[in-house]
Inverse folding.
């Protein structure tokens, strides 16, 4: 049934039209516009529908409140704050904690403590549930701090460590306000870890009542915050004060040393930084650094690693590569080890590509994550293909064949298979082309593009993808996110989901992807499904393909494709690649809408359609490219135009991304290569990958919705271009 809550005499818009389940008395679904004024009775009516609705209503109200959570009147409290406060009584711990997180910002930024005073009694009663709700505890601590109840705040953590970074900042600042000597603890807080929001809040607070830092310590803290805001010159000026006293503080706090390296890297003082870092490494080697024993490896790593970055910034490439090589043995984590190797390989790829094979032989066994080096291997494959260095291509493949990056392995295997077919590589040297196509086709982590093309050359079909019955999903963890849509606040759902996706299981994420898709949030649904489909433990499922490759705007897209003589799966693949079906999306370059058209291009296509007796499009000022009914037909016409100009689909797709002027020039330089190998030689990595992405998506759309095999979709495209 539809339950209409009367909100009294007011603007006619102040009405809640809420579908409610009769049995549960709970909101079901619908696009709810919570437009309320600060009348507590209306909050009570909403609470009776369901306490969780108050949190989602608070988000919607907050977005349109002139004065934010605290309202626009001195000493006032905004309606959203009242809604979030009421949501603290929700039976859902997730809703309670999320409401506490919103209130936390207002309490910490408030000047008069009015909101803190209002919240404190209710928070005291909730102390028993703090262990499972970190933001509730932080909100309680923030309320005590805002009201100057520093003794109570210190007592909160008297027998235990604060469980969060925010709690630690509140505890330290409360101790400082109580007159305790917290210099060392605050210095550790500001200098020993990456800076986050609680650090920035605490830094603003200590400016009001500075701790007993020395001049050099205060300057070091200020320098870190300048660098975190990308004010590198200002950061370096701050750092010069502790630098005058030598390396002691930078050696004591390696994070501070990293920020000093960034300041040198992005200012004109790079040579000074290199000289200084070399001197400091000599001090450590000679045992004259003043360090009280312990492992100096982390310090030496940072000296050489940031030294290499400074040298690379200054175009001292050979010296930079040697610095990264010297940093490598001291790298404290696998990620930092990979970073050193990446820089070494990237520099050598630019400066001495002929020497890449021996380097790969040395470093492939030492790196940690194969995927981390996918861009290096992609650039190298282009280099080797352009120069027709087929023996090197075979050597690289032999080095990476046992790795875990299926996409890169499939690319190399497919290219080698085609090179054998075309006679570029003798079969006696490489083996049968079919063996390489088999490797590419069976690589589960590879793009559909390479798998489908390989299957077509083998004369086989890719194995059918099973459609499994979705496993039941416990509702506790997903209900919080699904209720964004239940209560009309779907716009905010992904902001809350994105930081915690790693914590959710594949069935939970699958259910959420479906929820986002049903709400028309196609781009976010695609991101969720792509996220869990990339996990190592993922098994292919047709349900997931349908979520990752949805078919919205079907009538419009199929009709536009038909009018322009395009296959609908191609137009779907292009739109998914360009915009993920987000109608109002825009790029930094100025492209707009589902097919990401530039306004000038759209006007030109509109003119062509008009001159041919088609639809009369409005003038430039009225051409709303965020309207799918306008955007999609114009995008389809533009792709048709490019196909006619370029002669076939793949060059047209490349021109759609890289521009019409470049593709013929690039093609002429590689005219002896077949059409499927030519894209692998394109200079721009985005354009090089674009055609593959569109055709991979098209293959899936043909398979899911148009009764085609994936290999047939892609093979037919290249046959048409021959």
């Amino acid at each position: 049934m539809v339950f209409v809550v009367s909100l009294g005499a007011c603007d006619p818009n102040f009405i809640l039209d809420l579908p409610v389940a009769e049995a549960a008395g709970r909101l079901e679904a619908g696009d709810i516009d919570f437009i309320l004024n600060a009348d507590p009775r209306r909050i009570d009516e909403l609470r009776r529908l369901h306490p969780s609705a108050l949190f989602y209503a608070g988000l919607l109200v907050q977005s349109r409140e002139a004065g934010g959570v605290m309202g626009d009147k001195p000493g006032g409290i905004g309606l959203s704050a009242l809604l979030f406060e009421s949501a603290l009584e929700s039976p859902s711990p997730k809703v309670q904690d999320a409401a506490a997180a919103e209130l936390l910002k207002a309490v910490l930024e408030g000047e008069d403590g009015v909101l803190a005073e209002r919240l404190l009694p209710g928070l005291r009663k909730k102390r028993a549930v703090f262990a499972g709700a970190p933001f509730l505890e932080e909100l309680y601590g923030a309320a005590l701090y805002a009201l100057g109840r520093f003794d109570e705040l210190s007592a909160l953590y008297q027998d235990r460590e604060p469980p969060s970074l925010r709690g630690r900042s509140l505890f330290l600042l409360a101790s400082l306000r109580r007159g305790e000597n917290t210099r060392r603890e605050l210095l550790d807080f500001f200098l020993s870890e990456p800076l986050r929001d609680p650090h920035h809040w605490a830094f603003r607070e200590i400016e009001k009542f500075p701790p007993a830092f020395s001049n050099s310590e205060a300057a070091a803290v200020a320098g870190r915050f300048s660098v975190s805001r990308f004010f590198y010159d200002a950061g370096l000026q701050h750092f010069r004060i502790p630098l005058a006293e030598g390396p002691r503080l930078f050696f004591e706090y390696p994070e501070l040393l990293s920020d000093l390296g960034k300041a040198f890297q992005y200012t004109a003082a790079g040579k000074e930084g290199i000289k200084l870092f070399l001197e400091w490494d000599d001090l450590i080697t000679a045992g004259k650094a003043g360090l009280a024993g312990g492992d100096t490896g982390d310090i030496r790593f940072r000296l050489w690693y940031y030294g290499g970055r400074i040298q690379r910034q200054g175009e001292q490439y050979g010296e930079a590569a040697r610095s990264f090589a010297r940093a490598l043995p001291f790298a404290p984590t696998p990620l930092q080890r990979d970073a050193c190797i990446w820089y070494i390989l990237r520099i050598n790829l630019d400066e001495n590509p002929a020497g890449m094979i021996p380097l790969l032989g040395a470093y492939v066994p030492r790196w940690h994550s194969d995927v981390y080096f996918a861009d290096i291997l992609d650039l190298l494959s282009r280099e080797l293909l352009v120069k027709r260095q087929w023996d090197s291509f075979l050597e690289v493949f032999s080095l990476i064949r046992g790795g875990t990056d299926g996409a890169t392995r499939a690319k190399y295997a497919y290219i080698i298979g085609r090179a054998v077919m075309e006679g570029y590589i003798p079969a006696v040297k490489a083996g049968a082309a079919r063996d390489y196509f088999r490797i590419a086709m069976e690589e589960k982590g590879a793009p559909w593009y390479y798998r489908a093309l390989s299957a077509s050359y083998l004369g086989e079909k890719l194995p059918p993808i099973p459609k499994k019955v979705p496993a039941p999903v416990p509702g506790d963890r997903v209900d919080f996110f699904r209720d964004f849509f239940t209560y009309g606040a779907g716009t905010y759902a992904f902001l809350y989901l994105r930081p915690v996706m790693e914590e959710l299981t594949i069935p939970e994420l699958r259910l959420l992807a479906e929820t986002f898709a049903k709400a028309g949030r196609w781009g976010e649904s695609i991101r969720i499904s792509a996220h869990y489909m990339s996990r190592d433990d993922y098994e292919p499922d047709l349900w997931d393909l349908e979520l990752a490759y949805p078919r919205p705007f079907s009538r419009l897209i199929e009709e536009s494709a038909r009018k322009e003589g395009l296959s609908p799966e191609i137009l779907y693949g292009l739109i998914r690649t360009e915009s993920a079906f987000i109608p109002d999306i825009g790029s930094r370059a100025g492209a707009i809408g589902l097919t990401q058209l530039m306004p000038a291009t759209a006007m030109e296509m509109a003119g062509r359609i008009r001159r041919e007796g088609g639809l009369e499009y409005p003038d430039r000022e009225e051409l709303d490219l965020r309207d799918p009914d306008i955007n999609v037909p114009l995008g389809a016409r533009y792709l048709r135009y490019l196909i006619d100009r370029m002669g076939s689909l793949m060059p047209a797709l490349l021109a759609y991304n890289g521009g019409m002027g470049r593709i013929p020039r690039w093609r002429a330089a590689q005219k002896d290569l077949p059409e499927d190998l030519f894209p692998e030689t394109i200079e721009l990595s985005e354009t090089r990958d674009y055609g593959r992405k569109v055709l991979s998506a098209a293959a899936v759309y043909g398979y899911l919705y148009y009764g085609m095999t994936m290999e047939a979709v892609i093979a037919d495209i290249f046959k048409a271009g021959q």
Notes: The longest strand covers residues 16-21. The domain at 217-425 is CATH 1.25.40.10 (Serine Threonine Protein Phosphatase 5, Tetratricopeptide repeat). The beta strands are 2-5, 16-21, 26-27. The mean pLDDT is 88.
